[in-house]
Structure formats: C-alpha cells, structure tokens
C-alpha cells in the first residue's frame, strides 16, 4: 500500500506526518521505529499520525511516536505543524489538536507563525510523575557537576538543570542515564538551561525516546516554567534552541503559550508493507 507522507519540521525538530483519518494504517511501534530510522526509513525525531478528531471539540487527534516506537503525550513543535495543515485545509485561523494528554488550541498568526496553548504546567510530583513524594522545584538528582533540577509536566515529564555554561555540559553523555533514572517511572525529557537574561533562556534537550534534537517545544515550555519558579526569569521569555527561537509565555491562569514557525521539507509516498509490522 503506497501512502502519502509529508516531512515537516519546527526549528529543525522534524516529523513524518501520515494521515490516518480515512483509514487505519496499521502503525505498530515496530513500524513507526522503522519509518523513523534515518538510514533505512524516511527519518524523523517523531512520527505523527493524524487520526479522526471529535466533532465540535477537536479538529484532529494527533498520535505521536518516538523513534524507538514508544508513544509520547505531547509535542509542541509537531502541534504547530499539524495546526498549519488544518488551517490550510479548513481556512480557519483557530483549530484544536487533541492528544493523549489533552486538547491543544492553536492559532495562525499574520507572520506565518503559530501559537499553541500547551495547557497548564503540572507541578505536583504525582503529575510529572516522579517515583515518590518530593519537591518538584528541587529534585535530589545529580550527575557529576550537574545537580538540583526542577521538574514539571507539559503533557510529558520534564526535568530542567540550570547551568552557568551550556557549552561545557556533555549533554549526549549524560542524557541517556538521566532520562532513565529511577526517579522518573515513565522516563523523562532532560533540559539543560543557561540563563542569558531576564527574558532570554538558552536550552538543549535530551528527549525521551529520541535523544538530542534541534528543538523541543514542550521542553522550552518546561524550561520557562521552571526558570520562573526559581525566580531566574519572568513569566515570558525567548527560549533559544539549537534550531532557533521559541517565544514562551506562562499565563496567570497556569496555561503556557508557545509561539514559533513551521516548515515543510518535502512530500512523497512510502510503501508501508515494506516495513515490519
């Protein structure tokens, strides 16, 4: 079966988009991992399935698969990409994308960027989740010179370390063990943040199930929330990632807004039957 796909990205965080609204594509974890492989598949940070939404409530259901086949609860950059497809289809500036972690309203801006309401930051240890009761603002977790991260959930678990010099941190070496530390029963995305100013953060993220990526939208939201909780920045900041900048705002009602660009790299067709089920 030849199936059309679209390769999209948000600041270099790249996705294979497949439309499963009309028919089930039989996307197993093994098949998703095979398609995500950058040598023998299409290659991506996450594979995105568009599934039927809920009429009157959500325009589409977005299912997210990591390169290892595991399912993710939220992805901010992918949500902007999906919102851009829906806006083009419907002619509407405002759309709602449903995920396993909740509904994400999105809006097209005049400059071509999209703003996504990523929902409320979840700050209780049970919501992250963590393995036991503890203060999510100061986790008892350390690796070498790294220590004292803060944690929250943005639909998926995040821990944020604050460092004086991001270039001096061996992110690729530390990321895997931190992601899988027993303190995180569902693993976690690990953010490494350098505060550049009262409204500017620099961030690199080791993503759960994906590794190093050029940008992580939910990670940027978590970085802003955790930095604001520590009193390092205000409730609005530019978050600079390797792939570019996101604008993040933590509203008084607890919701976090993320604004950034979207792009289509290329389109094509793939024979799904050629990949393991």
Please explain how this structure is put together.
The protein has helices at residues 29-36, 76-90, 171-179, 217-229, and strands spanning 2-10, 13-19, 46-54, 58-65, 71-72, 94-99, 102-108, 114-120, 142-143, 146-147, 150-153, 157-162, 189-197, 200-207, 211-212, 236-241, 244-250, 255-260, 263-271. The longest helix has 15 residues, at 76-90. The protein has four helices and 19 strands. A hairpin with a 5-residue loop joins β7 (102-108) and β8. Helices cover 16% and strands 42% of the residues. It folds into two domains: 2-113 and 262-274, Diaminopimelate Epimerase, Chain A, domain 1, CATH 3.10.310; 120-260, Diaminopimelate Epimerase, Chain A, domain 1 (Roll), CATH 3.10.310.10. The relative contact order is 0.18. The chain has a 17-stranded mixed β-sheet that branches. By secondary structure, the protein is of the alpha+beta class. It is globular and about 50 Å long. The mean pLDDT is 96.
